[in-house]
Specification:
elongated; mainly beta; 9-stranded parallel beta sheet; 44 strands; 440 residues; 2 domains
């Protein structure tokens, strides 16, 4: 686990006069910027805040009004991921005519995302549910009878200030099961206000057995690498998940599973020169696509669902292998296996394109279902082989015929003419062969 860290702080502002907007400079070096803003306006309770870093707008996380005693006082948090670095001007503006401001900006490193905020109107607030990869931040304010410094703050203080009678401290603490944020007002406190929120760090993958899970609508797992000497599982679930260039680099059994509507598994790569023993690649769901799979030992690739497509599935293994495609209008574009194997395809209108069986042992290519089509079935082997087509309106686009060897004692003239068409994409090769054997 990697927890975000505090990096630097801006010059801030503590305005004792009513203003429409305020600005300060901040030499930013972190990858995430948080603005702690505390304002008071005496005319409009519905006012809002906006801020920019240079010309880049920030996002409002909280706009919490915690007091209406004489003034409408708010505790606010704004943020910007991947802010411009170096010396920047921070500008904070109120939608009302004017307000008192006490505000500053803080940058952090190692932040992946920001979580939702909790607000409180008490001097002591217990925050639960944070984890070890989070830095929990706090904007602690009081609206008091006089200005001063908040004392006895329970966590690490990054900045404190006051203007008019708004007293502020901004701090943070490493995530834990239960965190208490508390402090004491320098004078009679009319009201307390707190905003508490987590900054999320990264999750590291253990070198032992690990599980990576992504769940939700349209999750995306890009270049997800499992670098583990032990068994690992990569699981993606949800609507239209995408698993792009999934690389499993492990000498032990691994499983890559994608489920959901129209899932996509683009690429599986084994260790260079190595093998992925007992690997299982499974794609299920409506219109799944397995674009490419390269394995070097006996394995099983199974695709089920409506209109599955297997584009360029090359199985390069000296051991027996099975490729199964099931569903409406499945497509298996390529399979090359030098060992005995079976290529069954079942479903409505299956298509088996460029099925090359390169095997010295018995092999079978079987297509079953309504209106199956086999385009360019080539069997190159010295022993018995079978290509079976079952279903209505079957089509064999190209076959290869081998004539028996001629009898040298035969006195007749044997003329054999063979024309073979082989389709590879848009290329058509035509071969005409003629031979004449005459008795000596």
């Amino acid at each position: 686990m990697a927890i975000p860290t505090y990096v630097d702080i801006g010059n801030g502002i503590s305005a004792s006069a009513l203003l429409k907007s305020v600005s300060w400079t901040h030499n930013i070096s972190g990858n995430f910027l948080v603005l702690y803003a505390n304002v008071a306006n005496n005319t409009n309770s519905n006012y809002t805040l906006s801020a920019t870093v240079g010309s880049t707008p920030m996002t409002v996380l909280t706009n919490y009004q915690y007091s209406s005693n004489l003034f409408y006082v708010k505790n606010c948090v704004l943020y910007l991921a991947s802010p411009p670095t170096g010396s920047q001007t921070i500008t904070l503006t109120v939608s009302a005519t004017s307000a008192y401001f006490t505000a500053n900006s803080v940058s952090y490193n190692g932040v992946v995302s920001i979580g939702s905020a909790t607000t409180s109107s008490t001097s002591s607030t217990v925050y639960t549910g944070s984890t070890s990869n989070q830095l929990v931040c706090n904007n602690f304010t009081t609206w008091s009878s006089s200005a001063g410094t908040i004392s006895s703050y329970s966590k690490t203080s990054r900045w404190s200030s006051s203007s008019a009678t708004i007293n502020v401290v901004a701090g943070d603490a490493a995530g834990g099961s239960s965190l208490t944020f508390s402090g004491t007002s320098p004078a009679t406190a009319y009201n307390y206000g707190q905003s508490i929120f987590p900054l999320n760090g990264s999750n590291d993958i253990s070198p032992a057995g690990a599980t990576i899970a992504v769940t939700g609508t349209q999750p995306s797992l890009i270049t997800q690498s499992v670098l583990s000497p032990a068994a690992a599982t990569v699981t993606v679930t949800g609507t239209e998940p995408s698993l792009v260039t999934e690389t499993v680099l492990t000498p032990a059994a691994a499983s890559a599973t994608v489920t959901g509507t129209a899932p996509k598994l683009d690429l599986i790569v084994t260790p260079p020169g190595g093998s992925l023993t007992g690997a299982l690649i499974t794609v299920t769901g409506s219109a799944p696509t397995l674009t490419m799979s390269l394995v070097t030992t006996g394995d099983t690739i199974t695709i089920t669902g409506g209109t599955p497509s297997t584009a360029g599935t090359a199985i390069l293994t000296p051991a027996s292998a099975t490729v199964t495609v099931t569903g409406t209008a499945p497509t298996l574009l390529a399979s090359m296996v030098p060992g005995s194997q079976t290529l069954p395809v079942t479903g409505g209108t299956p298509v088996l394109i460029s099925v090359s069986v390169l095997s010295p042992a018995a092999a079978a290519a079987t297509v079953t279902g309504g209106t199956p089509v086999v385009i360019n079935p080539i069997t190159l082997q010295p022993s018995a082989a079978a290509i079976t087509i079952t279903g209505s309106a079957t089509t064999i686009t190209v076959g290869v015929y081998y004539a028996p060897a001629p009898d040298p004692q035969h006195t007749a003239v044997l003329r054999h003419e063979e024309r073979t068409h082989v389709m590879f994409g848009e290329r058509i090769h035509s071969v005409r062969r003629a031979s004449r054997l005459t008795e000596a």
